[in-house]
Amino acid sequence: MNIYDIAELAGVSIATVSRVVNDSPMVSEKTKAKVRKVMQENDYTPNVFARGLGLNSMKTIGLICPDVSDAYMAKAVAFLESDLREYGYDCMLYCSGNAYEDRQIAVNTILQKRIDALVLIGSVYSQADDNSESIDYLKEAARKVPVFLMNGYIEDENIYCALCNDFEASYSAVKKLIDSGRRKILYLSDSHSFSANQKRMGYEKALQDSKIELNKELMIFTYNKIIETRDLLLSRPELDFDAVFATDDGLAIGALKYAKIKKKRVPEDISIIGYNNFEISISCEPELSTVDSRSERLCKIIIDSMMLLLKKKQISHKVYVKGNLIRRSTTDF
Amino acid sequence: MNIYDIAELAGVSIATVSRVVNDSPMVSEKTKAKVRKVMQENDYTPNVFARGLGLNSMKTIGLICPDVSDAYMAKAVAFLESDLREYGYDCMLYCSGNAYEDRQIAVNTILQKRIDALVLIGSVYSQADDNSESIDYLKEAARKVPVFLMNGYIEDENIYCALCNDFEASYSAVKKLIDSGRRKILYLSDSHSFSANQKRMGYEKALQDSKIELNKELMIFTYNKIIETRDLLLSRPELDFDAVFATDDGLAIGALKYAKIKKKRVPEDISIIGYNNFEISISCEPELSTVDSRSERLCKIIIDSMMLLLKKKQISHKVYVKGNLIRRSTTDF
Asked: Which chain B residues are Cβ-neighbours of A62 within 8 angstroms?
């Protein structure tokens, strides 16, 4: 039983059923009662296609990211905004910060506006692996408007996710380091987000498949800042590594600066792979090999899906894209 | 004759005068007629304090920038959004692109929303030096809401500008290159905006004051891209220079990459100064000396001014901040 059946049984248009679901003032109380009766008799729960997008539209999309001054998010916001604008939508931007409570406040605040859909940029909004943070507030949000997650995953009827396959891309990058003769591969990360965990698992699996024992000493968590990462490595002279796999370009460049100070040759003494393919990855010397996480492609998928949903089409809840290793001068394969 | 006088003469509150000016439905026609009569008799044109901010507020500020994926603009949007959020304001973001027509469309589109004020980020929105582009659309906008210009200048009753003193900062940076013995200073720019022109004039004045003849051959316009700038310089082997002053860090790093390929030592053979103090300026090698254009300070001034205006206080139409030269390793002074 779907909205089309209800419309037919009630003798009204699909749009009218949608309006009844959304309690629109444009529908008479008499019609509302008739449609609701049919819905009740058929035990129909309005699905996502009847909610949110399209009706009573303010033509406004809410965009939430932790911090738009981050290059990954800035690029995503720029792309989403320009594409949505072409479809006639305005963008309400909210930078939530990373803290759990702040993310909740952001979502609840933006929902008080009349938005047609919500896009959450960044995998920090996903379910944490240890379930330590409830994602009920996002499932609540999805009862009001369709929610799109960029590089994150939550299973829900009205949440749609576009992700880079960070596990595979990381596995493949680390495997290449191993195949080029590296055994002591430093893992540098600044996050425990869904995406960061995928990368960590890719790293661990690549070591395991090559029968290299996991050395927890070589898994370092730091801030995503060049200078801080450099200094952290300088403060740990006991660390012995011949390669670096970093979950973000900033961390990788911190390692590159460390290598320069320690007079280690890159890539001969230390091979380095970053992640995201930011502008900084070509500004450093030697230029950084890095995984392109293809944020523009993810944005494109989100926009296309949203526009299909707007036209009441079925869309996928989870779409993966493949990350690409960009080989530059910090690796020798 | 100001709004306070009108309120007193009409025997109503200032808020009521404001509501009449804004034709609020909350004021009776009788009161409207009375207030309008007083306004007419006293030849009173409602000033900015009576328009826009505060009444019938949607607590939404429009932010327009050419491209939020640009590091300067991303940082500004992040700062403005977070500060405005603290004051309870939402942000509507519009990335206009650089073209004149697109900028006009952006302003006119966002004005159709109920915004309380408009912030234009980037000096491309200023009056062009040659007056080739009419800024009437911005003056029109300022009749509806207060307009704040970040790093640009337009003279208007309801336009408020916060600018980095790019002329002085550029003059001082180029003067330092000259004082360190450089005579053939390449000027690299990607723009003819108000701010870029200030930088160019600072460069020209510094040469003039040191009795160095201006060599137009050494003034190069390019795209603000590292690789494109490097390649442009490589394609011009006739250029003879011992220093580079670039109006943006990306251009400066392009010059740095050029120097590396040409086996020129930096700073010994070529001294380089960039502009904006972006993250790329510390990711390159050697790290880039650059002018900090203090965008956070400009954002802070804009927010503070806006909040004062909201409280009906007088604010300055033009506030300058001083750019700071950050000395790193591409200069030897």
From this structure: none
Instruction: Mark whether A81 and A227 lie in a shared domain.
Output: no
Asked whether residue B65 falls in the same domain as residue B11, the answer is no
Q: How far is A286 from chain B, CA to nearest CA, in Å?
A: 9
Q: Of B70, B95, B75, whose CA–CA distance to B297 is shortest?
A: B75
B213: closest CA of chain A, how far (Å): 33
What crossing angle do the helices spanning A3-10 and A14-21 adopt, rounded to 10°? 100
pLDDT tens profile A176-225: 999 999 999 999 999 888 999 999 999 999 999 999 999 999 999 998 68
CB contacts, 8 Å: A226 with chain B:
279, 282-283
Summarised one tens digit per residue, pLDDT across range A267-315 is 999 999 999 999 999 999 999 999 999 999 999 999 999 999 988 889 9
CA-based nearest distance B218→chain A, Å: 24
For B13, the domain range is: 3-52
Closest CA to A68 of A105, A92, A95, A91: A95
Query: What whole-number distance in Å separates Cα of residue A277 and Cα of residue B45?
Result: 55
pLDDT in tens, B40-59: 888 776 654 444 445 557 78
Chain B CB contacts of A93 below 8 Å:
63, 77, 81, 91-93
Q: Searching chain B, which residue's CA lies closest to the CA of residue A72?
A: B69
Query: How many angstroms away from the CA of B68 is the closest CA of chain A?
Result: 5
Report CA-CA distances (Å) from A328 to A237, A258, A266, A267, B238.
27, 19, 11, 10, 30
The amino acid at B128: A
Among the partner residues A77, A90, A285, nearest to B92 by beta-carbon distance: A90
Answer whether A315's CB lies under 8 Å from A308's CB: yes
**DSSP structure class, residue A126:** S
Q: With CA atoms as reference, report the closest residue to A301 among A144, A149, A194.
A: A149
Residues A181 and A261 in one domain: yes
The per-residue pLDDT of chain B, averaged, comes to 91
The candidate with the shortest Cα–Cα distance to B78, out of A116, A58, A121, is A121
Question: Cα B167 to chain center, whole Å?
Answer: 14
The domain that holds A281 is classified in CATH as 3.40.50.2300
Residue numbers in B near A250 (CB within 8 A): 279, 283
**A213 and A173 both lie in a single domain:** yes
| Contact present, A302 and A162 (Cβ < 8 Å) | yes
CATH number of the domain where residue A18 is located = 1.10.260.40
B160/B173 same-domain check: no
The two structure tokens encoding residue A88: 């006639």
pLDDT for res B155: 93
pLDDT at B51: 46
Domain-located, residue B93: yes
Cα distance between residue B43 and residue B46, in whole Å: 10
